[in-house]
Amino acid sequence: MFDIGFSELMVIAVVALIVIGPERLPRVARTAGILLGRLRRYAADVKADISREMQLDELRKMQQDVADRIASAESTVRQELHDVETSVGNVIAPPELENAVPPAPALCVPPGTFSDAPAASPPAADTEVRRP
Asked: Is the pLDDT of residue 69 over 80?
């Protein structure tokens, strides 16, 4: 941080010894060391907080980017699904036949259609049916 050499530190120590005195110099040096340590810890904490905030900001940007991509993919999938449903609907019921009337279902099947056996003849009208 500061560019202080050994000779400059010695000059500062001699001036401090003369100004402060030999009795109070150890206590002042200890207090200065404690304050310097607190200052360094405070600077390290500030750096760590700034770093965390930057990482948190990057994570928020990444989260927003992922959310945008998911929304885009969902929109694309919905559009493709709609296109497929439309095309399948056109294959099953073409637009020109949507208003056409479907043919009536066959109500009876002609005899002999499903088997080669001769059709049973209906009972004669003049025969009597006995009831028990």
From this structure: yes
